[in-house]
Amino acid sequence: NLSDRLGNVFDRLRGRGALSEQDVRDAMREVRVALLEADVALPVARRFIDNVTEKAVGQDVLRSITPGQQVVKIVNDELVEMLGGAEVEGLQLDAKPPVVIMMVGLQGSGKTTTTAKLGKLIKEKHGKKALMASLDVQRPAAQEQLKVLGEQVEVATLPIVPGQQPVDIARRAMEAARLQAVDVLLLDTAGRLHVDEALMAEMKAVAGVSAPEEVLLVVDSLTGQDAVNVAQSFSGEVPLTGVVLTRMDGDARGGAALSMRHVTGKPIKFAGTGEKLDAIEAFDPKRVAGRILGMGDVVSLVEKAAATIKEEDAEALAKRMAKGQFDLNDLRTQLRQMQSMGGLGMLAGMMPGMKKAKAALAASGMDDKVLVHMDAIIGSMTPKERARPELLNAKRKKRVAAGSGTEVQEVNKVLKMHQEMSRAMKQIKKMGGLKGLGALFG
Ligand code: GDP
Ligand code: MG
Questions:
Q1: Averaging pLDDT over each range in 185-189, 368-372, 428-432, which range is the top one?
Q2: Is the pLDDT of residue 102 over 90?
Q3: ipTM of this complex > 0.95?
Q4: Where does ligand 1 bind, in terms of residues with CB under 6 Å?
Q5: Which positions does UniProt annotate for GTP binding (predicted)?
Q6: Rounded CA separation 274/104 (Å)
Q7: 136 C-alpha to center of ligand 2: Å?
Q8: I need a labelling partner for 346 at 20 to 30 A (CA). Which of 151, 252, 300, 308 fits?
Q9: Which residue puts its alpha carbon closest to atom 9 of ligand 1?
Q10: Residues 6 or more apart whose Cβ sits within 8 Å of residue 352
Q11: What is the pLDDT of residues 272-329, one digit of tens each?
Q12: Which ligand is nearest to the CA of 107?
């Protein structure tokens, strides 16, 4: 896997100060192979490597990780970023109803299946009334197929009128949606085996009469390199708003995702993960980045690297704690570290010595969103209050809660956590001071 390959390249570099251009170039040869093996289109791989090279050259190699691991982190971060970053974009359903979602793509890419999956999602998750219409007059029984799927997910489909052409069906669907007070109208269009002019003209005409809020390009993730050409042709003709990658349950390595995103510039909104009609998920850039790199351990490497970046912070904190100082500013630093290390789940692994504080965390039933809240709460305190939490009387707590958009209860939780942690730290100090703390952060 890539991690081993990079390990070999960098073994001889261990301990050097900064990544040189030659180091990075050697590493990028391996990254390039990994990308192509994952079916990333060649021009996209090239572009990606240029970006990463620019970022990596000259970066300091952190003390406790190898240059290979450092490069993996940079590559992984860039992949996640290019795949859409942390934000997953959902469907735009807030426009004036009927909101039209138009599905486009090649034949067999999974349009009809995805239409039914989305219909179900819109009904169940969004609580909206959906109507589905098949405009596929190319494939025999294509309209029947959607009807059957509609019955399975209990979402209405437009009655079939034999012989009617796509644009007329679209008009009729709009009319029906209005009459039936439908919130979301899903238009499942015809595909071809290859992109051709007739198909594109049809797409445009349908978009013309239905003014879709979303035009989703459905792409089979197994098509790999080909996916780029498809995306290019479609995005040149119809105003896409997003991409759905199907068959992510198969052995696709995820390269199509990177290519899609790069070529269309549009977010990948969903991943199809099976033939069943609930097999659809919000697209997860982190997971797909891991898949492209072909290594399950990339995440742990990255987290290790992230922890190392914070090592200096931790050392400064350790010194303060050893003196028995641990105020809310320190707690805030800790909270931010937890977030950047991948949340509370990671904390358990990172701080094996901190049983007490860990137990306190678990007991308070926190999830990662809570970290963000806690940060906001501490942010709403004055510097004095942060340094001396005992100043926070009922009145001040109320102000802090209002300022952070939370409740006094939550402010109390932060204070309790701070108490638990400082108590735990005092114990550690008793147990052996800095030596004990070394174990805590080692
Ligand atoms: P269309 O021609 O674009 O409308 O494609 P269909 O929706 O008819 O799908 C073609 C085939 O792909 C069907 O057998 C689907 O069950 C299958 N399919 C669609 N999406 C997925 C998916 O995410 N995973 C898997 N394994 N199969 C899928
Ligand atoms: Mg179809």
A1: 185-189
A2: yes
A3: yes
A4: 105, 107-113, 191, 246-247, 249-250, 272-275, 279
A5: 105-112, 188-192, 246-249
A6: 19
A7: 7
A8: 252
A9: 110
A10: 439, 440
A11: 999 999 999 999 898 888 778 765 454 555 555 556 555 656 666 667 766 767 788 8
A12: 1
User: What is the crossing angle of helices 67-82 and 285-293, to 10°?
Assistant: 130
CA of 187 to the centre of ligand 2 (A): 11
Q: Which atom, in ligand 1's list, is nearest to the CA of 136?
A: 4
Residues 344-363 pLDDT 10s: 444 443 343 344 455 555 55
Q: Is the peptide bond before 98 cis (omega within 30 degrees of 0)?
A: yes
Partner residues linked to 60 by β-bridges:
18
Q: What is the 3-state secondary structure (H, E, C) of 244-301?
A: EEECCCCCCCCHHHHHHHHHHCCCEEEEECCCCCCCEEECCHHHHHHHHHCCCCHHHH
Structure pTM? 0.68
Report how far residue 5's alpha carbon sits from residue 223's, in angstroms, rounded to the nearest whole number: 27
pLDDT band at 331 (very low <50, low <70, confident <90, very high): confident
Average pLDDT, the chain: 81
Percent of the chain with pLDDT over 70: 76
Domains of the chain: 2-87+294-300 (1.20.120.140), 99-283 (3.40.50.300), 310-441 (1.10.260.30)
Calculate how far, in angstroms, residue 107's C-alpha sits from the geometric centre of ligand 2: 7
Cα–Cα distance, 178 to 188 (Å, whole number): 18
CB 90 within 8 A of CB 269: yes
